[in-house]
Specification:
Strand content: 5-15%
Number of helices: 13
Order of helices and strands: HHHHHHHHHEHEEHEEHH
Distance between the termini: 86 Å
Largest sheet: 5 strands, mixed
Shape: elongated
Structural class: alpha+beta
Number of strands: 5
Length: about 450
Amino acid sequence: METIGPPIRRNATGPLRRLLTRRETPRPPARRRLMAYVLPLGLLALAGLGLAADRYLADNRVLPGIVIGIIAAGSVLPVAFSYRLPIWAWRIAYPMMFLGVINAAPKEPWPWNTVQILGFLIVLGRLAVTQESGLTIWATALSLIPVFLFAKETNAWGAAVLLVVIAAIGDIIYRRGRTGELLAEKLAEEEELTELERAKRAVLEERTRIAREMHDVVAHHMSMIAVRAETAPYRLPELPADAREELAGIAVAARAALTDMRRLLGVLRAEQDSPEKAPQPGLADVDRLVTTAREAGVEVAYERTGIADLPGTAGLTAYRIVQEGLANAGRHAPGKPVTVAARGFADRLELTVRNELGEEPADAGGHGLIGMRERVTLLGGTLHAGPVDGEFVVHAVLPSSRVMTERSERHDRALVLRSFGRKPHDQGADRGRPGDGPAGVRRAARQPAGHPRRR
């Protein structure tokens, strides 16, 4: 049979050890404004009460002056410590309950001076308001010992009831405050989880939207593959039979891929969404987008130089970035001029949208910026968005068609090499170079590893 005695004893005596021996962590200080006015007045009041206690003891008891000073100081000092160190305040006030009865005259109604009684009640109440229930119970129980030892029998029970009532009220206040803190912490956790879920949902919704838009672009290319593979025997009648059979297989695979993509699109599209029949916009449609913004009253300066060859997906991404940049500028900085710059290079397109910061700061964690990052990351580009020198700048770098083709060929070459039991970083893995095309990849796969390439 299991015994539950030791755990119970540990739970019962833990608050007692903390009350008597454990180091206490100071509680937070009061507000500066409150301290500036209350602290001087409080110290002045305690000094006056200490002098009153000293005068009372000198008039009613025969004690040396140093003892009278110790008792008077011990009557008010615990109150001074009780705000930030309530346990230490009780540790000082409790022994003074035994020291404060020295040479008490029979004519005194209580063996302690009035200042000491009030100070001890304040200290016990402060401890009950700030500490756990177990510690309050032990402090109250120990405080009853000097009451029944030194107080008159007619007064002891009334004093005991008063101590218990003060401790109980303080404990109720502590419990309510602690419950409020726990509820506030729980609410903060729920709000944080809600915000995280909202952010995740925004990312998923944006990815779904991107996938729907990408379907149109990819489906066009897949359709062209199927059509060209199916019509090749008619356009090239000299093709051998095995080539015709290979092209027929490619056409069947392309048609199957298109069917699977349509099924995937049906899963991604919400029930209330209707299929979009308009073609997806591209970089060439940015002019129309800028014109529409100007007609709406937005001052837009558009610069377009050296536009590189962009695939459909990159053009769609560029259009969406400009669209979101103009929308953010109109939302967060209305009336401020906007500059849109599209500069093409041999290997990339650099797209910049900048506007002056408005009174309402742009939300760096908004859903629009999340969509930008998702689109740019999908293409292997980079995106930076944020305030720079008094402006909010969105700067995106998108790879050109050649770069995306080279990346695709490197990926395909790696897959081929793995299928032949090699790793992409093996010697000779770079023999099929981006400019070699599929033929170079096939030659690299047929050539033994470690054998120099023949030119």
